[in-house]
Design a protein that fits this description.
The complex is a heterodimer of chains A (301) and B (342).
Chain A lengths: L8 H30 L2 E3 L5 E5 L2 H4 L3 E3 L5 E3 L2 H33 L2 H12 L6 H12 L6 H6 L13 H25 L4 H8 L4 H12 L1 H16 L3 H5 L8 H9 L5 H35 L1
Antiparallel strand pairs in A: 1-2, 3-4
Helix pairs in contact in A: 1-13, 3-7, 3-10, 7-10, 8-9, 10-13, 12-13
Chain B lengths: L1 H14 L1 H5 L3 E7 L5 H11 L2 E7 L2 H9 L7 E2 L6 H6 L3 E2 L29 E13 L11 H4 L9 E3 L3 H12 L8 H15 L2 E4 L4 H7 L4 E5 H9 L4 E3 L6 E8 L1 E2 L5 H11 L2 H11 L14 H4 L12 E3 L5 H15 L1
Helix pairs in contact in B: 1-3, 7-8, 8-14, 9-10
The chains are: A mainly alpha (301), B alpha/beta (342).
């Protein structure tokens, strides 16, 4: 052993992990700190920031100077944030409704087929999200894959106008992030001891009760992980709202983009990102706590 | 067929890479679908310089990228109203375009324009107009007035498409309402805001990319459009007509400039000079269908382009070029747009 290596096990572990600390530090913390600092500066009228401290970006979240320069309460941004949460919640719910049965079905397959199905679930990731979202325009759009046969069969007379609606955004988001729901649920269902299901049936639980009182509680960590993995990217989603929603109502992601491009208000864009980040961190802390509690309980048992 | 040609051009470009190394590289950052591959292949063949093209979707994105410290681009192509901003922010450099050999080919009316009075920075790319287009099979109007775009009739309800960035939309609104460009008057801007909010009831999408597709599928009946881009849509067979409203249209002039952080300034100048050769500029115009600012290009145009209504506006058309707005005027524009989008 060389002399310069740390003696203690903890020291060695630290050294072993040093590269990952370094990568996380440079590529995650530093940009976040830059964003945080920028959110407390003044905007430069032509993009960038002036090195002058200011709370204006955070004031702007709730108040605005109207066209006559009066400071008034402005629910506009709050509405946009609320709308983003609402839509993300809806998309997460849809992902869960479609994702859980898929994961469950895969678990019930013989072992050699399971890997193949999981492989199928990951196939969409091979193609760029932008292209896959464009495909939905062809599917949902006027004269598209859904409408054309219905029109030809005389079932509908005019366009269903499915594109450029909130529904189209929800479909796009659900489609984009469905695999992120299926995979963690599958991971926890795979470990499920199916003898427990038989035991439950032996004890006169009907099918619904087996599902709600045995299967779902046991794979709760997977469900929660899946929900978080879907909810978070939905909050900042940018492609689906723009392409499928027609950019008519700003979402958080588009709002942030607008601040950096058209509006040239980088501090406000940074403040919005900080807000988004805090929401995500709070959710993750919640999750970590719940997981810890569960681990402790299982430890007791 | 076009795709096959593109692949062929790319393959040819790859074969010349070995040769290109010696002459160095050129990085172009241009609008989406604004740099014909065949033009780049020709330049690479003649100069031995290897060219890479990256794209952006708006002047605002270009400005934000350069402000954020993006380096490595040798040529970028902003519109006229962004040139003074890029100069003031120190983001582009003087390259003495007026002393390039082919500068003599530039049309006199485009020499030393107000946004670059000494022609130190800018080499010509394309100029054109912004207005709106309509699907002539679905729309009974004639595109005679901007009223049809801003205060459309019920035929257009839920089938109007407007650009995604405020710049040109607000400029068109200025023309329609007779309000001066870059107004700093809150009352005047309120009028524009109210009109755009009312217009929103008719809007199906805010879109700056797939306008021709929207018109072709009938998803939209009227869309904001650029003259040459509208022609490209029409050439695919869709019944798209570019409107020349009586109030006038917004004009723009895109030019090549060299960022301060450019590494291959000499190659950038070679490319600028190359583009001021009428044969090469005609190739660009043929592909894009906007106007060019180089003398003697028309003889190389195809018959189709020569007679295209999109580059042959009525003689009495009023074209207004938007100047660079003051920060105060710009922030009013942003406020209006944010309100409309909420």
């Amino acid at each position: 052993m060389s002399d310069w290596l740390p003696r203690s096990a903890a020291g060695r572990r630290w050294l072993g992990l040093a590269p990952s600390y370094f990568v996380i530090g440079i590529f995650m913390l530093v940009p976040m700190i830059i964003m945080g600092v920028f959110s407390f500066l003044e905007p430069n009228p032509y993009g960038g920031v002036k090195p002058v401290g200011s709370m204006a970006a955070y004031v702007k979240l709730f108040f605005e100077y109207d066209l006559e320069d009066q400071l008034v309460f402005n629910p506009g941004y709050i509405n946009i944030i609320f709308r983003s949460f609402q839509l993300s919640f809806g998309a997460t719910l849809l992902c869960l409704v479609f994702g859980f049965p898929v994961a469950y079905y895969i678990t019930l397959q013989p072992e050699n087929r399971r890997n193949f199905y999981i492989y199928l679930v990951t196939i969409p990731f091979w193609t760029n999200l932008l292209i896959r979202t464009f495909a939905w325009i062809i599917i949902l759009g006027r004269g598209g894959v859904i409408e054309t046969p219905l029109l030809a069969a005389g079932i509908i007379e005019d366009s269903l106008r499915m594109m450029y609606t909130d529904g189209a955004i929800a479909i796009g988001l659900t489609y984009s992030y469905l695999p992120l729901m299926v995979l963690p649920i599958y991971a926890s269902l795979e470990k499920l001891d199916f003898r427990l299901l038989e035991a439950a049936s032996d004890l006169y639980a009907n099918r619904l009760e087996v599902m709600t009182r045995v299967v779902i509680p046991l794979c709760k960590p997977g469900i929660i992980a899946g929900c978080i993995l879907v909810f978070i990217p939905c909050l900042g989603a940018f492609i689906a709202p723009n392409l499928l929603g027609g950019g008519k109502k700003l979402m958080l992601g588009s709002l942030v983009q607008f601040q950096f491009a058209s509006a040239r208000n980088w501090p406000f864009g940074a403040a919005l990102s900080m807000l988004l980040l805090s929401a995500v961190v709070i959710m993750l802390i919640f999750y970590a706590r719940a997981a810890k509690k569960r681990a402790a309980m299982e430890g007791d048992g | 067929m076009k795709r096959v040609l593109t692949i062929f051009a790319a393959a040819t470009a790859m074969l010349t890479v070995g040769l290109a190394k010696a002459e160095g590289e050129l990085f172009i950052y241009n609008w989406t679908e604004y740099t014909p591959p065949e033009l780049i292949a020709k330049f690479e063949k003649e100069s031995g310089i290897k060219v890479s093209v990256d794209t952006y979707d708006s002047n605002e994105t270009l400005l934000a990228k350069l402000q954020a410290g993006a380096t490595g681009y040798d040529i970028v192509v902003p519109s006229q109203n962004f040139v003074p901003i890029l100069v003031r922010e120190g983001l582009i450099q003087k390259v003495g375009v007026h002393s390039l050999p082919n500068y003599k080919n530039l049309e006199d009316r485009w020499k030393k324009p107000e946004w670059d009075p000494e022609q130190e920075y800018t080499g010509p790319w394309q100029w054109g107009t912004t207005s709106f287009s309509y699907n002539s099979e679905l729309y009974s109007g004639k595109g005679a007035s901007l009223k049809e775009f801003f205060e459309p009739n019920d035929q257009v309800k839920g089938r109007l498409s407007v650009f995604q960035t405020p710049d040109e939309v607000v400029s068109l609104a200025n023309i329609y309402l007779g309000i001066p460009f870059c107004s700093e008057d809150a009352k005047q801007m309120k009028k524009i805001q109210d009109m755009l909010v009312r217009q929103k009831e008719y809007v199906v999408a805010y879109n700056s990319e797939t306008m021709s597709d929207l018109l072709a599928s009938g998803e939209a009946i009227i869309t904001n459009h650029w003259s040459g881009f509208s022609r490209l849509g029409r050439l695919t067979g869709a019944p798209i007509v570019y409107a020349y409203p009586k109030e006038g249209v917004v004009g723009w002039y895109d030019s090549m400039v060299v960022p301060t952080s450019a590494k291959n300034v000499e190659n950038a100048k070679k490319f600028m000079n190359f583009m001021m050769d009428p044969v090469n500029m005609a190739m660009l115009t043929e592909n894009q269908g906007y106007g060019d600012a180089v003398k003697g290009t028309a003889q190389y145009y195809s018959d189709e382009l020569k007679s295209a209504p999109e580059i042959n506006p009525p003689a009495d058309l009023k074209v207004f070029f938007a100047p660079t707005c003051s920060p105060k005027a710009q922030s009013l524009i942003d406020k209006v747009w944010t309100k409309v989008m909420q």
